[in-house]
Amino acid sequence: MNPSFLLKFFLLHIVLFFGFLGATEPQLTLDYYASTCPTVFDIVRKEMECSVLSNPRNAASILRLHFHDCFIQGCDGSILLDDTITLKSEKTAAANIHSLKGFGIIDQIKNFVESECPGVVSCADILTIAARDAVILVGGPYWDVPVGRKDSVTASFELTDTNLPTSDESLVSIIPKFLYQGLSVTDMVALVGSHTIGMARCQNFRSRIYGDYESTSAKNPISDNQFNNLKSICPPNGGGKNNITAMDYVTPNLFDNSFYQLLLKGEGVLNSDQEMYSSVFGIATRELVKKYAADSLAFFQQFSDSMVKMGNITNSESFVTGEVRKNCRFVNT
Protein backbone atom coordinates (compact mmCIF):
# COMPACT_ATOMS: atom_id res chain seq x y z
CA MET A 1 0.00 0.00 0.00
CA ASN A 2 1.21 3.55 -0.77
CA PRO A 3 3.11 4.96 2.27
CA SER A 4 1.58 8.41 1.63
CA PHE A 5 -1.93 6.96 1.87
CA LEU A 6 -1.02 5.07 5.05
CA LEU A 7 0.30 8.21 6.72
CA LYS A 8 -2.77 10.27 5.77
CA PHE A 9 -5.07 7.49 6.99
CA PHE A 10 -3.13 7.26 10.25
CA LEU A 11 -3.16 11.01 10.89
CA LEU A 12 -6.87 11.31 10.11
CA HIS A 13 -7.74 8.70 12.71
CA ILE A 14 -5.44 10.28 15.28
CA VAL A 15 -7.10 13.67 14.81
CA LEU A 16 -10.59 12.13 15.05
CA PHE A 17 -9.59 10.19 18.15
CA PHE A 18 -8.12 13.09 20.06
CA GLY A 19 -10.65 15.64 18.88
CA PHE A 20 -10.38 18.73 21.02
CA LEU A 21 -8.37 17.22 23.85
CA GLY A 22 -5.38 19.40 22.97
CA ALA A 23 -4.84 23.10 23.52
CA THR A 24 -7.67 25.15 24.95
CA GLU A 25 -8.52 28.69 23.94
CA PRO A 26 -5.87 30.84 25.63
CA GLN A 27 -6.91 33.74 27.84
CA LEU A 28 -3.73 35.65 27.13
CA THR A 29 -2.95 39.18 25.90
CA LEU A 30 0.15 41.12 24.89
CA ASP A 31 -0.57 43.97 27.33
CA TYR A 32 -1.52 41.94 30.41
CA TYR A 33 1.20 43.56 32.55
CA ALA A 34 1.07 47.01 30.91
CA SER A 35 -0.17 48.72 34.08
CA THR A 36 0.81 46.22 36.81
CA CYS A 37 4.41 45.42 35.80
CA PRO A 38 5.43 47.33 32.65
CA THR A 39 9.14 46.56 33.12
CA VAL A 40 8.82 42.76 33.24
CA PHE A 41 9.98 42.20 29.66
CA ASP A 42 13.02 44.42 30.21
CA ILE A 43 13.94 42.59 33.42
CA VAL A 44 13.71 39.16 31.79
CA ARG A 45 15.70 40.30 28.77
CA LYS A 46 18.49 41.80 30.88
CA GLU A 47 18.89 38.67 33.00
CA MET A 48 18.80 36.38 29.97
CA GLU A 49 21.48 38.49 28.29
CA CYS A 50 23.77 37.97 31.28
CA SER A 51 22.98 34.27 31.42
CA VAL A 52 23.54 33.52 27.74
CA LEU A 53 26.65 35.70 27.62
CA SER A 54 28.15 33.67 30.47
CA ASN A 55 27.22 30.37 28.79
CA PRO A 56 25.49 30.13 25.38
CA ARG A 57 24.18 26.67 26.33
CA ASN A 58 21.81 28.36 28.76
CA ALA A 59 19.69 29.43 25.79
CA ALA A 60 18.93 25.83 24.87
CA SER A 61 18.30 24.94 28.52
CA ILE A 62 15.60 27.58 28.96
CA LEU A 63 14.00 26.76 25.62
CA ARG A 64 13.84 23.08 26.56
CA LEU A 65 12.36 23.93 29.98
CA HIS A 66 9.55 25.83 28.29
CA PHE A 67 8.85 22.98 25.86
CA HIS A 68 8.73 20.39 28.63
CA ASP A 69 6.49 22.62 30.73
CA CYS A 70 3.92 23.13 27.98
CA PHE A 71 3.72 19.47 26.95
CA ILE A 72 2.93 18.10 30.40
CA GLN A 73 -0.20 19.94 31.50
CA GLY A 74 -0.04 23.19 29.60
CA CYS A 75 2.31 26.15 30.02
CA ASP A 76 1.64 26.57 33.72
CA GLY A 77 5.06 26.52 35.39
CA SER A 78 4.49 23.05 36.82
CA ILE A 79 7.89 21.92 35.53
CA LEU A 80 9.51 24.35 37.99
CA LEU A 81 8.02 22.80 41.14
CA ASP A 82 10.25 20.82 43.51
CA ASP A 83 9.30 17.66 45.36
CA THR A 84 7.42 18.14 48.63
CA ILE A 85 5.61 15.81 51.00
CA THR A 86 2.37 16.36 49.08
CA LEU A 87 3.68 16.90 45.53
CA LYS A 88 5.76 14.69 43.24
CA SER A 89 7.84 16.87 40.95
CA GLU A 90 7.88 16.54 37.17
CA LYS A 91 11.62 17.23 37.35
CA THR A 92 12.33 13.76 38.70
CA ALA A 93 10.55 11.82 35.93
CA ALA A 94 12.76 9.77 33.61
CA ALA A 95 12.23 12.15 30.67
CA ASN A 96 13.40 15.13 32.72
CA ILE A 97 15.77 14.18 35.50
CA HIS A 98 18.97 14.21 33.43
CA SER A 99 17.94 16.53 30.61
CA LEU A 100 16.58 19.70 32.22
CA LYS A 101 18.72 22.59 33.42
CA GLY A 102 18.19 26.32 33.89
CA PHE A 103 15.99 26.27 36.98
CA GLY A 104 18.39 28.60 38.78
CA ILE A 105 18.16 31.11 35.94
CA ILE A 106 14.38 31.29 36.29
CA ASP A 107 14.75 31.61 40.08
CA GLN A 108 17.06 34.59 39.63
CA ILE A 109 14.76 36.30 37.13
CA LYS A 110 11.81 35.71 39.46
CA ASN A 111 13.67 37.35 42.34
CA PHE A 112 14.30 40.49 40.30
CA VAL A 113 10.71 40.60 39.04
CA GLU A 114 9.36 40.14 42.58
CA SER A 115 11.46 43.03 43.86
CA GLU A 116 9.98 45.25 41.15
CA CYS A 117 6.41 43.93 41.02
CA PRO A 118 5.67 41.64 43.98
CA GLY A 119 2.97 39.04 43.50
CA VAL A 120 2.12 40.07 39.94
CA VAL A 121 4.02 38.06 37.31
CA SER A 122 3.64 34.28 37.16
CA CYS A 123 6.58 31.93 36.86
CA ALA A 124 4.87 30.42 33.80
CA ASP A 125 4.98 33.81 32.05
CA ILE A 126 8.58 34.43 33.09
CA LEU A 127 9.62 31.09 31.57
CA THR A 128 7.72 31.79 28.35
CA ILE A 129 9.27 35.24 27.93
CA ALA A 130 12.72 33.90 28.81
CA ALA A 131 12.43 31.19 26.13
CA ARG A 132 11.71 33.84 23.48
CA ASP A 133 14.66 35.95 24.62
CA ALA A 134 16.93 32.88 24.72
CA VAL A 135 16.26 32.27 21.02
CA ILE A 136 16.87 35.91 20.06
CA LEU A 137 20.15 36.05 21.98
CA VAL A 138 21.68 33.22 19.93
CA GLY A 139 20.58 34.61 16.58
CA GLY A 140 17.01 33.38 16.30
CA PRO A 141 13.79 35.22 15.45
CA TYR A 142 11.65 37.58 17.53
CA TRP A 143 7.97 37.04 18.31
CA ASP A 144 5.47 38.77 20.56
CA VAL A 145 4.70 36.80 23.72
CA PRO A 146 1.08 36.79 24.94
CA VAL A 147 1.00 36.72 28.75
CA GLY A 148 -1.45 36.27 31.60
CA ARG A 149 -0.78 32.66 32.61
CA LYS A 150 -1.29 31.51 36.17
CA ASP A 151 1.02 29.11 37.96
CA SER A 152 -0.40 25.67 38.57
CA VAL A 153 -0.68 24.43 42.14
CA THR A 154 -0.23 20.86 40.89
CA ALA A 155 2.27 18.86 38.85
CA SER A 156 1.91 15.63 36.90
CA PHE A 157 4.77 13.17 37.25
CA GLU A 158 2.72 10.58 35.35
CA LEU A 159 2.03 12.72 32.27
CA THR A 160 5.72 13.55 31.91
CA ASP A 161 6.66 10.14 30.56
CA THR A 162 3.55 9.78 28.38
CA ASN A 163 3.27 13.25 26.81
CA LEU A 164 6.88 14.08 26.02
CA PRO A 165 8.45 12.75 22.80
CA THR A 166 11.56 10.62 23.30
CA SER A 167 14.75 10.38 21.28
CA ASP A 168 14.19 6.81 20.05
CA GLU A 169 10.54 7.14 19.06
CA SER A 170 9.37 6.64 15.51
CA LEU A 171 7.72 9.39 13.51
CA VAL A 172 4.30 7.73 13.70
CA SER A 173 4.61 7.64 17.49
CA ILE A 174 5.74 11.24 17.92
CA ILE A 175 3.23 12.94 15.61
CA PRO A 176 0.21 12.04 17.81
CA LYS A 177 1.92 13.65 20.81
CA PHE A 178 2.04 16.96 18.96
CA LEU A 179 -1.48 16.59 17.59
CA TYR A 180 -2.74 15.94 21.12
CA GLN A 181 -1.40 19.35 22.11
CA GLY A 182 -3.16 21.01 19.19
CA LEU A 183 0.09 21.32 17.22
CA SER A 184 0.27 20.34 13.56
CA VAL A 185 2.92 18.34 11.71
CA THR A 186 4.27 21.65 10.43
CA ASP A 187 4.52 22.93 13.99
CA MET A 188 6.34 19.76 14.97
CA VAL A 189 9.01 20.01 12.27
CA ALA A 190 9.57 23.70 13.02
CA LEU A 191 9.73 23.26 16.79
CA VAL A 192 12.18 20.36 16.54
CA GLY A 193 14.42 22.89 14.76
CA SER A 194 15.24 24.19 18.25
CA HIS A 195 17.71 21.29 18.33
CA THR A 196 19.98 23.54 16.31
CA ILE A 197 21.21 24.82 19.70
CA GLY A 198 20.55 21.66 21.71
CA MET A 199 22.80 19.06 23.28
CA ALA A 200 22.09 15.32 23.43
CA ARG A 201 23.20 12.76 26.00
CA CYS A 202 24.93 9.57 24.88
CA GLN A 203 22.11 7.54 26.40
CA ASN A 204 19.71 9.21 23.97
CA PHE A 205 21.74 8.77 20.78
CA ARG A 206 23.63 5.51 21.33
CA SER A 207 21.04 3.41 19.49
CA ARG A 208 21.15 5.84 16.57
CA ILE A 209 24.92 5.85 16.01
CA TYR A 210 25.24 2.10 16.48
CA GLY A 211 22.11 1.55 14.41
CA ASP A 212 21.46 3.19 11.06
CA TYR A 213 23.62 6.35 11.32
CA GLU A 214 26.32 5.04 9.00
CA SER A 215 23.82 3.90 6.38
CA THR A 216 21.99 7.26 6.28
CA SER A 217 24.95 9.65 6.45
CA ALA A 218 26.84 10.94 3.47
CA LYS A 219 30.05 9.15 2.56
CA ASN A 220 32.55 11.99 2.80
CA PRO A 221 35.46 12.87 5.11
CA ILE A 222 33.48 15.42 7.14
CA SER A 223 30.63 12.99 7.74
CA ASP A 224 33.05 10.19 8.61
CA ASN A 225 34.88 12.46 11.07
CA GLN A 226 31.60 13.36 12.77
CA PHE A 227 30.60 9.70 12.97
CA ASN A 228 33.93 8.79 14.56
CA ASN A 229 33.61 11.71 16.97
CA LEU A 230 30.16 10.53 18.09
CA LYS A 231 31.49 7.02 18.68
CA SER A 232 34.36 8.40 20.78
CA ILE A 233 31.86 10.37 22.89
CA CYS A 234 29.44 7.48 23.22
CA PRO A 235 30.94 3.97 23.48
CA PRO A 236 28.76 1.01 22.51
CA ASN A 237 28.78 -0.94 25.75
CA GLY A 238 26.85 1.20 28.20
CA GLY A 239 29.53 3.59 29.47
CA GLY A 240 29.49 7.36 29.21
CA LYS A 241 25.71 7.64 29.19
CA ASN A 242 25.85 11.26 30.37
CA ASN A 243 28.46 12.36 27.81
CA ILE A 244 27.01 15.02 25.55
CA THR A 245 27.30 16.28 21.99
CA ALA A 246 25.76 19.10 20.00
CA MET A 247 22.85 18.09 17.79
CA ASP A 248 24.11 20.64 15.27
CA TYR A 249 27.89 20.28 15.21
CA VAL A 250 28.28 22.92 12.47
CA THR A 251 26.94 25.93 14.42
CA PRO A 252 26.11 24.58 17.91
CA ASN A 253 25.66 27.98 19.57
CA LEU A 254 23.84 29.72 16.72
CA PHE A 255 20.12 29.46 16.10
CA ASP A 256 19.97 28.83 12.34
CA ASN A 257 18.76 26.25 9.82
CA SER A 258 21.91 24.12 9.60
CA PHE A 259 20.21 21.46 11.75
CA TYR A 260 17.90 20.69 8.82
CA GLN A 261 20.83 20.62 6.42
CA LEU A 262 22.39 17.92 8.56
CA LEU A 263 19.18 15.89 8.35
CA LEU A 264 19.41 16.04 4.55
CA LYS A 265 22.87 14.46 4.88
CA GLY A 266 21.54 11.78 7.21
CA GLU A 267 23.53 13.18 10.12
CA GLY A 268 20.75 13.69 12.64
CA VAL A 269 22.06 12.70 16.07
CA LEU A 270 18.70 11.57 17.43
CA ASN A 271 16.63 8.88 15.77
CA SER A 272 13.49 10.96 16.30
CA ASP A 273 15.06 13.87 14.38
CA GLN A 274 16.39 11.86 11.45
CA GLU A 275 13.02 10.12 11.08
CA MET A 276 11.51 13.41 9.91
CA TYR A 277 13.58 13.10 6.75
CA SER A 278 14.32 9.39 6.41
CA SER A 279 11.13 7.65 7.54
CA VAL A 280 8.99 5.98 4.87
CA PHE A 281 6.05 7.71 6.56
CA GLY A 282 7.73 11.12 6.39
CA ILE A 283 6.35 12.39 3.10
CA ALA A 284 5.08 15.66 4.59
CA THR A 285 7.89 16.05 7.11
CA ARG A 286 10.56 15.36 4.51
CA GLU A 287 9.33 18.24 2.34
CA LEU A 288 9.31 20.58 5.34
CA VAL A 289 12.86 19.58 6.28
CA LYS A 290 13.99 20.35 2.74
CA LYS A 291 12.11 23.67 2.80
CA TYR A 292 13.66 24.85 6.05
CA ALA A 293 17.12 23.61 5.06
CA ALA A 294 16.93 25.80 1.95
CA ASP A 295 15.14 28.83 3.41
CA SER A 296 16.11 30.11 6.85
CA LEU A 297 13.51 32.89 6.72
CA ALA A 298 10.74 30.35 6.19
CA PHE A 299 12.03 28.39 9.17
CA PHE A 300 12.24 31.48 11.35
CA GLN A 301 8.71 32.58 10.48
CA GLN A 302 7.20 29.16 11.14
CA PHE A 303 9.21 28.67 14.31
CA SER A 304 7.95 32.01 15.66
CA ASP A 305 4.34 31.14 14.82
CA SER A 306 4.66 27.65 16.31
CA MET A 307 6.26 28.94 19.50
CA VAL A 308 3.33 31.30 20.06
CA LYS A 309 0.95 28.42 19.38
CA MET A 310 2.80 26.15 21.82
CA GLY A 311 2.93 28.92 24.42
CA ASN A 312 -0.84 29.20 24.14
CA ILE A 313 -1.35 25.64 25.36
CA THR A 314 -3.01 26.58 28.59
CA ASN A 315 -3.94 24.68 31.71
CA SER A 316 -7.59 25.69 32.03
CA GLU A 317 -7.64 24.54 35.65
CA SER A 318 -4.85 26.95 36.54
CA PHE A 319 -7.03 29.91 35.54
CA VAL A 320 -9.44 28.82 38.29
CA THR A 321 -7.18 27.39 41.00
CA GLY A 322 -3.80 28.79 39.92
CA GLU A 323 -1.77 31.55 41.51
CA VAL A 324 1.27 33.74 41.10
CA ARG A 325 3.98 31.88 43.00
CA LYS A 326 6.32 33.86 45.20
CA ASN A 327 8.94 31.15 44.70
CA CYS A 328 8.81 29.23 41.43
CA ARG A 329 9.83 26.01 43.18
CA PHE A 330 6.95 25.88 45.65
CA VAL A 331 3.23 26.50 45.81
CA ASN A 332 2.32 29.51 47.97
CA THR A 333 1.39 28.71 51.57
Give a brief outline of the structure:
By secondary structure, this protein is mostly helical. The chain has helices spanning 3-18, 40-54, 57-73, 103-116, 123-137, 157-163, 171-180, 185-192, 202-209, 213-216, 221-233, 258-264, 271-278, 283-294, 296-311, 318-321; strands spanning 199-201, 244-246. 52% of the residues lie in helices and 2% in strands.
Structure overview:
By secondary structure, the chain is mainly α. The chain is built from 16 helices and two strands. The protein has helices at residues 3-18, 40-54, 57-73, 103-116, 123-137, 157-163, 171-180, 185-192, 202-209, 213-216, 221-233, 258-264, 271-278, 283-294, 296-311, 318-321, and strands at residues 199-201, 244-246. A two-stranded antiparallel sheet has the order 1-2. Helix 2 (40-54) runs antiparallel to helix 4 (103-116). The chain is globular. The chain starts with a helix and ends in a 12-residue tail after the last helix. Pfam families: peroxidase (PF00141). Substrate binds at residue 165. Residues 1-26 form the signal peptide. This is Peroxidase.
pLDDT < 50 stretches: 14-24
Which structural class best describes the helix and strand composition? mainly alpha
Strand order of the largest sheet: 1-2
Strand tally: 2
Biggest sheet character: 2 strands, antiparallel
- Average pLDDT number: 91
Percentage of residues assigned to helices? 40-55%
GO molecular function: heme binding; lactoperoxidase activity; metal ion binding
Keywords: Calcium, Disulfide bond, Glycoprotein, Heme, Hydrogen peroxide, Iron, Metal-binding, Oxidoreductase, Peroxidase, Secreted, Signal
Pfam families: peroxidase
InterPro entries: Haem_peroxidase (IPR002016), Haem_peroxidase_sf (IPR010255), Peroxidase_pln (IPR000823), Peroxidases_AS (IPR019794), Peroxidases_heam-ligand_BS (IPR019793), Secretory_peroxidase (IPR033905)
